């Protein structure tokens, strides 16, 4: 299988614009955190996850957005796939809608309620282990924030996945150096180097530019296997909009009308 990187860039440009459109309906949403992981999530859905024959909107594999605040990246992709409707996105975070600011299990395309950080990798590990026990040919892909690697539960899950040699588990860390309102490199310098710690826990690991869809796809495709795999993607929070990039307030804020217009004018294809 080949992965069309140019098509991925076009999709991600459209997804950023769609997230900005939705931002004008609500006073706050996690746009910047969605922008930092967008190429990762797009590559998972359109390059890595296997689709059921004859049903292109149904997948053989499982995706879990552990960094629940990045769910806008998942919502706009699910809309594009026809799994969520345009109306679903229009009713985002409204009393009559079913999409919240974090994913909820039961919504089409959502495999787990996430956003309480540190729980996602444990759930993904359990899902992947259950699939192996049941003889299911299924891979589990999970996207984590770098901030949630502060949680001990993440490392407990990492250790257990390695102990059980769960090689149908692939985790991605959105390494944008931002944890809500602070920089990880300043507040948690002992967190680095990340890959050394992950490998010490028994995982295969690699690092790429997290906005380079081709590099993401190639790194996962080249993994040796036999144990879980983690890909760290070096990213920029708010990628694609200059005044959002790595600025803490954009973890939460929706742009004003003027800022929205400026953001749309700035958006160009994000390249490596």
Structural write-up:
There is one protein chain. This protein is an alpha/beta fold and 272 residues long. 40% of the residues lie in helices and 15% in strands. The protein has helices spanning 5-23, 31-48, 71-80, 86-90, 120-133, 152-163, 184-187, 194-200, 213-221, 257-266; strands at 51-52, 55-59, 62-65, 140-145, 169-175, 178-179, 182-183, 204-209, 229-234. The strands form 3 sheets. It has a 5-stranded parallel β-sheet, with helices on both faces. A two-stranded antiparallel sheet has the order 1-2. Helix 1 packs across helix 3. It is globular. The mean pLDDT is 93.
Biggest sheet strand order reads 3-4-5-9-8
The string of secondary-structure elements, in order, is HHEEEHHHEHEEEHHEHEH
Query: End-to-end span in angstroms?
Result: 22 Å
Number of DSSP-assigned strands: 9
Our count of helices gives 10
The share of residues in helices is 25-40%
The overall pLDDT average reads 93
In quaternary terms, these chains amount to single chain
Structural class: alpha/beta
Globally, the shape reads globular
Unreliable segments of 5+ consecutive residues: none
Largest sheet: 5 strands, parallel
Radius of gyration: 17 Å
The percentage of residues in β strands lies in 5-15%
Structure described in brief:
40% of the residues lie in helices and 15% in strands.
């Amino acid at each position: 299988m080949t992965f069309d990187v140019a098509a991925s860039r076009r999709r991600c440009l459209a997804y950023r614009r769609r997230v900005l459109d939705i931002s004008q309906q609500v006073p706050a949403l996690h746009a910047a955190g969605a922008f930092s992981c967008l190429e990762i999530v797009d590559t998972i859905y359109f390059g890595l996850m296997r689709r059921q024959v004859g049903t292109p909107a149904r997948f053989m594999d499982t995706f879990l957005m552990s960094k629940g605040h990045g769910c806008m990246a998942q919502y706009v992709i699910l809309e594009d796939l026809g799994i969520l409707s345009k109306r679903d996105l229009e009713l985002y975070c409204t009393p009559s809608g079913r999409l919240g600011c974090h994913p909820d299990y039961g919504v089409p395309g959502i495999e787990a309620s996430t956003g309480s950080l540190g729980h996602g990798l444990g759930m993904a590990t359990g899902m992947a282990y259950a699939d192996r026990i049941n003889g299911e040919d299924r891979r589990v892909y999970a996207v984590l924030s770098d901030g949630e690697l502060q949680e001990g539960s993440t490392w407990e899950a990492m250790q257990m996945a390695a102990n059980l040699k769960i090689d149908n588990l692939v985790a991605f860390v959105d390494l944008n150096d931002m944890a809500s309102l602070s920089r990880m490199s300043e507040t948690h310098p002992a967190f680095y180097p990340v890959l050394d710690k992950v490998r010490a826990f028994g995982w295969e690991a690699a690092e790429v530019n997290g906005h380079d869809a081709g590099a993401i796809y190639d790194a996962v495709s080249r993994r040796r296997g036999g144990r879980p795999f983690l890909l760290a993607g070096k990213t920029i929070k708010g990628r694609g909009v200059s005044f959002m990039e790595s600025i803490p307030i954009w973890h939460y804020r929706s742009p004003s009308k003027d800022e929205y217009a400026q953001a749309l004018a700035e958006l160009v294809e994000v390249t490596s």
